[in-house]
Amino acid sequence: MAQTSDVRSRRRAHLLAGLLAGAGILHFASPRSFDHMVPKQLPGSRRQWTQASGAAEAGIAAAIAIPRTRRLGGLAAALLFVAVVPGNVKMALDYDRKGKPVPHRVIAWARVPLQWPLIAWALRVRDSA
What we know:
mainly alpha; single chain
């Protein structure tokens, strides 16, 4: 039974690492799609924030992938998922104000509560490390 739990824990961690690595890569491959989510009030350019968040996601993915740093990586992932909630809310509000098509607005708003399962997933990875 313990081996099955260990396999599940590793699989959960590797999937989260893959998700974060993929998102990190997207921040560099398609930065314009992320730039608009960065609030204007933040210092520096939106592109710098996009690249910094992409690098953070990639670094956290690496931390989760390595068993020795997985506990810290899981905590960092949970904090990152909390930190992006304001950006997701901003994007949803912007889509509402700009009158984007309904499917786009629904997806934008759905991203907000979806952060909570991601946070829980990251904390499970941390706790099982």
